[in-house]
Amino acid sequence: QVQLVESGGGLVQAGGSLRLSCVASGSIFRANDMAWYRQAPGKQRELVAGITRVASTKYADSVKGRFTISRDNNKNMVYLQMDSLKPEDTAVYYCNAVFTLPREIDAWGQGTQVTVSS
């Protein structure tokens, strides 16, 4: 059974940085697409950044130029470097990974809280 575990969340002042990490365990296969989503109180979950197996990336307009997604295929890990954080970045951040082998699996982490104070 695939499990995703996030780490690296916390409290930071506006303008600061945090780095989120997520490791996928329980599969001998590499994940295909991996991504970070976030959900703020009273809002829908939204895509923050995604990365394909060959490192093609996409970002939400609100984080372009401030956040960087990367991955380590050998470790089945995905990272999110968050710089120039703003109070509106405050949310629970979730890791997502899609596997196609041995069958299609859409896995989610439990979430990590990021709070940016003004």
What does this molecule look like?
The chain is 0% helix and 53% strand. The chain has 118 residues and is an all-beta fold. It has strands at 3-7, 10-13, 18-25, 34-39, 46-51, 57-59, 67-72, 77-82, 91-99, 105-108, 112-117. It is globular and about 45 Å long.
Topology, element by element:
Elements lengths: L2 E5 L2 E4 L4 E8 L8 E6 L6 E6 L5 E3 L7 E6 L4 E6 L8 E9 L5 E4 L3 E6 L1
Parallel strand pairs: 2-11
Antiparallel strand pairs: 1-3, 3-8, 4-5, 4-9, 5-6, 7-8, 9-10, 9-11
What Rg, in angstroms, do the CA atoms define?
A: 14 Å
pLDDT average, as an integer?
95
Q: pLDDT under 50 segments (min length 5)? A: none
Q: Which class of secondary structure composition applies to the elements? A: mainly beta
Short description:
The chain has 118 residues and is mainly beta.
Key structural traits:
about 120 residues, mainly beta, seven-stranded mixed beta sheet, four-stranded antiparallel beta sheet, about 0% helix, globular
